[in-house]
Design the sequence.
């Protein structure tokens, strides 16, 4: 068994759930503890059964309830030193024995899952994405990416499933009421990934074994789920790949998605 569920996804808060035969983990917890606990309960998961929380970076929409959940339910957290030091409010709530530090040079195990963290470009202390392996299957979780690099693409290759950011549509962003500096941040090299860039990456990765994708971290103001889906599929079709070459869905902002089997 190897399953994935997005509990919350978007600029208002992000939290993801991964389950294998022996292990249950969260990736980020950027909503309130109550909301995350309730969302897990909706898919018949008890918060007391969570074995660990992986942290991608310190922005509040990814760590809002990290300290509370770790402290109250004695959950180990896995992060890198720079990210930990960049979130003192969360760090001060977490028991020292529950802090597990990683770097990008070494994989680590949680139960029967193997975790490979890798660096991504974003305006945070030391942000990362994750490959998660169970037996011979690989999934990837990659959001908050300012631009795609050959190293990122290489890490994403051979994934069966991927949650990939499709944060904004460039034309909507241009016309949004956001101030100029914020528009520049979002579309800049340390900002977020556009629908088009996500589609281009997915088109390449299909040829390496990718069969299921969930688009995540959509902007509420600068994107629409239908537009993200349409743009990505257009990129796939432009590469002469059949429409059924990928199972594509979009993570919802305020509700959990169905559990997806990684096959």
Sequence:
């Amino acid at each position: 068994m190897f399953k994935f569920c997005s509990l919350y996804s978007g600029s208002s808060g992000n939290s993801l759930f991964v389950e294998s035969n022996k292990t249950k983990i969260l990736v980020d917890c950027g909503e309130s503890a109550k909301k995350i606990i309730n969302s897990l309960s909706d898919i018949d998961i008890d918060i007391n059964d969570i074995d660990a929380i992986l942290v991608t970076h310190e922005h509040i929409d990814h760590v809002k309830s990290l300290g509370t959940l770790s402290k109250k339910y004695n959950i180990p957290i896995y992060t890198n030193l720079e990210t930990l030091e960049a979130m003192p409010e969360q760090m001060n709530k977490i028991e020292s024995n529950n802090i597990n530090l990683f770097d990008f040079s070494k994989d680590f195990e949680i139960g029967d899952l193997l975790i490979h963290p890798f660096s991504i470009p974003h305006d945070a202390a030391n942000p990362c994405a994750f490959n998660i392996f169970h037996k011979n299957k690989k999934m990837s979780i990659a959001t908050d990416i300012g631009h795609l690099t050959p190293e990122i693409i290489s890490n994403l290759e051979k994934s069966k499933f991927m949650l990939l950011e499709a944060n904004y549509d460039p034309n909507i962003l241009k016309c949004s009421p956001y101030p100029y500096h914020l528009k520049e941040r979002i579309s800049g090299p340390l900002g977020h990934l556009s629908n088009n860039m996500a589609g281009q990456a997915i088109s390449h990765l299909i040829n390496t074994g990718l069969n299921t994708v969930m688009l995540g971290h959509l902007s509420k103001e600068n994107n629409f789920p239908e537009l993200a889906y349409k743009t990505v599929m257009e990129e796939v079709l432009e590469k002469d790949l059949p429409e059924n070459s990928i199972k594509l869905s979009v993570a919802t902002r305020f509700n959990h998605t169905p559990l997806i089997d990684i096959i």
